[in-house]
Structures are given as C-alpha cells and as structure tokens.
C-alpha cells in the first residue's frame, strides 16, 4: 500500500527520536512491499520560532490530508514563560481538536527485561497487557469555568454522543484483543458518570455482546490497577479520570521511554507519539530512548494503516532488542548503554 505520513518532530529530543524512527518505518515498507512518504512540518516551540504560532496553517493542512501523523514531543524551557501569549502545547491541543481526535490510547505492557524498573513487584507485573482509552474532548477540562473572590467552579459536561463514540472505539479494541472491557466512572456520586455508565452499558449490550463488560468506580480502579493489573484488558474512561489513571498505569511499565500512545477519532487518521515529553535535559546529546516512538509507529501501522502483521513485527523487534539488553542510558547500568541511533539499528536488525 501507499501511505502519506506527516512527521512532526517538534522540540527537544523530538527530532532525535523521530529521525531514529523513520528508518524503522522505511525498513517495514521495504520488507513488506509498501511505499510510505514522509513530509516534515513544524509544531510546538519550533513553529513559534519560525512562524509565530504553535500550529501553522501549513502543518494543519498537511495533517488533514495525511493517512497518519507521527509526532515527537513539544515544549521546553525556551517557551515556558508563564506570561507568554503562545505556548508549544497549544499546538498539540489545537491539532487534536481540529482533527476530531477524541480517544487517547495508551498500551501498557511491561517488558520482562525492564520489570525491575517499575516500583511495582515483578510477580504482579508478569503478563500485564492493558490498553487504557481516555476520552480526550469533553468533561471538566472543557466545561465553563468561573472564579470570584470567594469561590470557583468547573463545569463537568458529557453528551450521550461523546460517550457513545469513545465506548465504541474501546469496544472495538477489546473485541480485537482479549474481549474484556472495564468502564471506569464515579457513578455513585456524579451525574455525568451515571450517564457514562448508562450509555456504556447500552452501547456494549447492543453492539458488542461478545465483549464482557465490568464497571469500576475510579477510586477502586486506582487501587486495583496496582494490586491486580493482570485482571485488565481494555479500560475506558472519561477525560480527567483517564489523565490520572494513564499516568498511574505508566508506572507499571517502569520507564517513560517505553510507552507509546495513539490519539484517534472516527476516521483512520491519528496522531502517534511517545507519552514522554521533550526531555530538555538530554536534548541534543543523541542518547534519548527511541523505543516509545518506535512503538508509537507500530500503533500507527496498526490503527491508521491497518497493517497488523507489520505492527506486530515492529513490537516483536523492540521486545527482541530489549531481550538482548540493547538499552539506552535511561535503562542501562550507569556508564553503559547505546545511543539513540544504536537502539533504532538494533530494532531494524531484528525486524526479520
Ligand atoms: P512534559 O511536560 O512535556 O510531559 P515532563 O515534565 O513530563 O514533560 P519529560 O520531558 O517527559 O518530562 O522528561 C521527564 C524525565 O524523563 C527527564 O529526566 C527526561 O530526560 C526523561 N526522559 C523522557 N523521555 C525520555 C527518553 N525518550 N529517553 C530517555 N529519557 C527520557
Ligand atoms: Mg509529562
């Protein structure tokens, strides 16, 4: 197949991890007979510097026409003045919104050789394979906000349609995986959560009768995620609960440098990026861990291009590189480790 991939390196280590990842995609294309074109555009701080805005019109236009978007990271100390009128992160929020990306997927699958990096006991982590699906466009983050001298309010709002679409995405994902969905809410207290639970129950009964559904209150979910993480397959939840639970879930895997994400909407196009930030402390040194970005490229192959076998090959190659202890400095013993390009080469060599 042919695919047009828009590449948004962004700031800090973004350009380093993205340029380590493109040869992996090129190797996949060669091996499986596909043709991928890569078009680079600016987003974030670099876009502010070059164009005066974090999401230039040319970037958005290219993104709208693309089959998929691979992103590095945005932001850094240069643009972090709290009084600044424009900030790099606005570019990311704006592009997600413009493309209608409402579901953020974060797979959490601790790798055997990195288990020691997690603060959770290894015996609880073996076999953990979870995808958290966080709703991205609604809830308390986007409701009306008010502030007076004596009080403040944040309105939490969800429409039936917003809950339906994200539950549908999660249901479809659960069906492709182990057929189990956990929907997380706070239905004992919040009206939006009672709506969430009603809609999730109906959508799953009508459209995914083959997927088992469990409802969990967010407080007990926070506990169970650490005490019995193996019990979960796909977890779907609203925006703020998802924000908190995905950070918690990331600790199961240990290193930030191993966690990928996908932001998806109703169509095929999505934005794929590592969950970590621009790591200004190590930027420019060529030592950043590229695995999270390479694993994000695997999600791109699976979710936007429908290339499941290719996605699995990339994931297996990263696993094999980790098995062979090809570690960047964040995972390696002090004074050891390969550089960014070396880790990417190790993946390409193991692509089969
Ligand atoms: P943001 O606000 O953009 O999410 P953050 O404050 O969460 O950023 P990160 O940029 O994710 O911070 O970095 C947190 C720490 O993890 C830093 O010490 C950074 O060097 C390290 N880190 C992040 N990503 C990587 C990576 N790919 N390889 C190695 N170290 C990393
Ligand atoms: Mg962060």
UniProtKB/TrEMBL annotation:
Matches recorded under SMART domains: Iso_dh (SM01329)
Residues that, per the record, bind Mg(2+): 219, 243, 247
Site (Important for catalysis): 141, 186
Catalysed reaction, written as an equation: (2R,3S)-3-isopropylmalate + NAD(+) = 4-methyl-2-oxopentanoate + CO2 + NADH
Amino-acid positions noted as binding substrate in the UniProt annotation, renumbered to this chain: 96, 106, 134, 219
Swiss-Prot/TrEMBL keywords: Amino-acid biosynthesis, Branched-chain amino acid biosynthesis, Cytoplasm, Leucine biosynthesis, Magnesium, Manganese, Metal-binding, NAD, Oxidoreductase
All residue ranges annotated as the Isopropylmalate dehydrogenase-like domain in the record: 4-347
Documented EC number(s): 1.1.1.85
Family: Belongs to the isocitrate and isopropylmalate dehydrogenases family. LeuB type 1 subfamily.
NCBIfam families hit by this protein: leuB
Function comment: Catalyzes the oxidation of 3-carboxy-2-hydroxy-4-methylpentanoate (3-isopropylmalate) to 3-carboxy-4-methyl-2-oxopentanoate. The product decarboxylates to 4-methyl-2 oxopentanoate.
Identification of the protein by name: 3-isopropylmalate dehydrogenase
Source organism per UniProt: Luteimonas composti
Gene behind this protein: leuB
